[in-house]
Inverse folding.
């Protein structure tokens, strides 16, 4: 059984300078309650690894807006003007990664692979400084694994073994992040007893999960800009 | 509908005709998104949304938004019967693995080699590439759908792109408010023109050399 913690307790060990993976896409599937708790704790100089910086006042976007992020590894910052402004002012070190590569690097880390070979980025600025290999006549970039100290995952249902169901379009990079982070915290709308969840409906096997937190904030302010 | 809107509709209708029955299609943000409204009713076409599903449906009605489903731009949308959800690894395996039949994207510049620049203007606009690089490299067919010239009236179809590239030699078709141009190994082939323009006007508005098809259709 996995510990069920308050959000405050769950983020207690996330100190300044920690690397944090946050699953979701444009705020959809972000762990709002955990993000709120981390903001309240006041950790800063974070390395944030997330698909995009959402909107200024939505989900993971708030970590950027409130100046908690020192290094950002992401695929798109266009919907959160704060990220671009801070990048231009030299306040955040931003690494932009093609989205497919972003996910495969995280998956590689979690799956015990030494990297991935992708054709994405060949002939563009993305290839700078990277090793190229030719496989069966086609050129590929070697992209290296990407892990994190912590991951925030939002689930609809999680049983006490950590088995998690992520509905609809909230799955995003959550499965890969759950494999790649040292400590994985699942924020769940419903926490159920083992056996209450159909094993066929498990998106993320519980063995990856470190702790479970009851969701308090609804994911309803999605469209706020 | 004003004249500009009519031209955009004509453009996206022309793009929509390219998809055979059963196609999996990914539409980029902006003008390409409009293609969804003009898909031929007699064909089954599933739209891929790179955040994690195929079967992208219309925007959700006000009051019926579900926070668990958005499109790649973050807007609340719906899923059509026959659609399915998956995670990001699967979504981009579908893209990179060549399982998306068509991707339709806008462009800042495109050139005669099929090079595409559509993700940044150094010092001005640096939003990040999102899924664009994977889509352009991975989709079986890459269609650029855009205005023929930029807001200053300058050509966007160039001999050689000047902005940072999204990908090299991946564009197959360029559809604009003026022309339908195929990218071939020998350069750009003008195949069709819009009903309110001439071949000469298209040539004048294009920096790259154009080969002219023996039969120029109108759209």
């Amino acid at each position: 059984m996995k510990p069920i913690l308050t959000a405050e307790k769950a983020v207690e060990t996330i100190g300044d300078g920690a690397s944090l993976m946050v699953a979701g896409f444009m705020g959809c599937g972000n762990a709002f309650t955990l993000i709120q708790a981390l903001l309240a704790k006041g950790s800063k100089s974070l390395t944030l690894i997330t698909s995009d910086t959402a909107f200024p006042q939505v989900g993971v976007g708030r970590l950027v807006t409130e100046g908690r992020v020192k290094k950002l590894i992401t695929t798109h910052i266009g919907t959160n003007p704060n990220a671009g402004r801070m990048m231009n002012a030299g306040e955040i070190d931003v690494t932009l990664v093609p989205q497919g590569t972003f996910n495969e690097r995280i998956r590689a880390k979690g799956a015990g692979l030494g990297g991935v070979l992708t054709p994405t980025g060949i002939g563009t600025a993305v290839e700078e400084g990277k090793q190229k290999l030719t496989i069966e006549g086609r050129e590929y970039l070697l992209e290296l694994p990407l892990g994190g100290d912590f991951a925030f995952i939002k689930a609809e249902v999680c049983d006490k073994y950590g088995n998690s169901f992520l509905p609809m379009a909230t799955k995003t990079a959550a499965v890969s992040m759950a494999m790649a982070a040292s400590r994985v915290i699942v924020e769940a709308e419903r926490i159920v007893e083992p056996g209450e969840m159909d094993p066929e409906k498990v998106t993320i096997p519980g063995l990856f999960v470190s702790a479970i937190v009851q969701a308090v904030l609804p994911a309803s302010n999605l469209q706020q800009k | 509908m004003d004249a500009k809107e009519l031209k955009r509709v004509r453009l996206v209708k022309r793009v929509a005709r390219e998809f055979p029955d059963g196609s999996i299609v990914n539409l980029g943000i902006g003008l390409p998104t409009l293609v969804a409204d003009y898909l031929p009713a007699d064909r089954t076409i599933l739209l891929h949304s790179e955040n994690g599903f195929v079967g992208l449906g219309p925007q959700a009605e006000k009051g019926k938004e579900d926070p668990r489903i958005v499109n790649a731009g973050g807007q609340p949308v719906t899923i059509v019967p026959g659609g399915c959800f998956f995670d990001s690894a699967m979504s981009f395996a579908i893209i990179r693995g060549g399982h998306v039949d068509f991707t339709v994207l806008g462009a800042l510049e495109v050139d005669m080699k099929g090079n595409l620049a559509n993700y940044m203007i150094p010092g001005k606009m640096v939003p990040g590439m999102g899924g664009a690089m994977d889509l352009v490299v991975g989709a079986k067919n890459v269609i650029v759908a855009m205005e023929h010239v930029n807001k200053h009236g300058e050509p966007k179809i160039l001999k050689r792109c000047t902005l940072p590239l999204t990908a090299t030699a991946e564009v197959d078709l360029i559809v604009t408010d003026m022309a339908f141009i195929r990218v071939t190994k020998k350069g750009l082939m003008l195949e069709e023109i819009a009903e309110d323009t001439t071949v000469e006007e298209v040539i004048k508005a294009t920096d790259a050399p154009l080969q002219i098809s023996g039969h120029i259709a109108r759209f």
In short: The interface with chain A takes residues 49-53, 65-70, 72-76, 79, 85-89, 92, 95-96, 115, 126-134, 137-138, 164-169 of chain B (CB under 8 Å). Chain B has a mean pLDDT of 95. Residues 3-37+98-218 of chain B form a domain with the Glutaconate Coenzyme A-transferase fold (CATH 3.40.1080.10). Chain B is about 15% helix and 30% strand.
